Amino acid sequence: MAHPAFLGSFVTSPENGFSHGALFGQLMRLSGADMTVFPNWGGRFSFSREECRQIADACAEDMDDMKTIFPAPGGGMTTDRAQDLRDVYGREFVLLMGGGLHRHSPDLTRNAEYFLQMVSAL
């Protein structure tokens, strides 16, 4: 699993640095990661929906014999966004659900079961 700690500054400028897809998709694949964590749009971070789509595309694009990896968007994820995320990332992605699981009710086990049912129905 590749985590984006300290990498955000490499994609903040449109004039220099890396594209989102190259840094969080291609380079993570070349580094041997099986999944790449990155800030999802609409959460606590400023990535756009299109930048996140570029990352997901880079995780799956043809790179000769290089295996694909799972995009793993995170950062302010909530259960009510599951369908929207599925629409952007398809079926092959990891949902990093942390604090969002606590918002449905005070019972974390019940919340996880609810989330599993919701995701299974997508």
How would you describe this structure to a colleague?
The chain is mainly alpha-helical. It has a single domain, classed as TIM Barrel (Alpha-Beta Barrel). The chain has 4 helices and 2 strands; from the N terminus they run H-E-H-E-H-H. A two-stranded parallel sheet has the order 1-2. Helix 1 (20-30) packs parallel to helix 2. The two termini are 25 Å apart. 25% of the residues are buried. The mean pLDDT is 89.
Task: Give short descriptive properties of this protein.
mainly alpha, two-stranded parallel ribbon, 2 strands, 36% helix
The tally of domains stands at 1
Q: Decide which structural class fits the backbone.
A: mainly alpha
CATH architecture: Alpha-Beta Barrel
The CATH H-level superfamily is Ribulose bisphosphate carboxylase, large subunit, C-terminal domain
Oligomer: single chain
Poorly predicted sequence stretches spanning 5 or more consecutive residues: none
N- and C-termini, Cα separation = 25 Å
Number of helices: 4
Radius of gyration, rounded? 15 Å
* Total beta-strand segments: 2
What's the level 1 CATH class?
A: Alpha Beta
The secondary-structure element order is HEHEHH
Overall pLDDT score: 89
Largest beta-sheet details: 2 strands, parallel
**Helix share of residues?**
25-40%
Strand content: 5-15%
CATH topology tier name: TIM Barrel
Shape: globular
Please give the order of strands in the largest beta sheet: 1-2
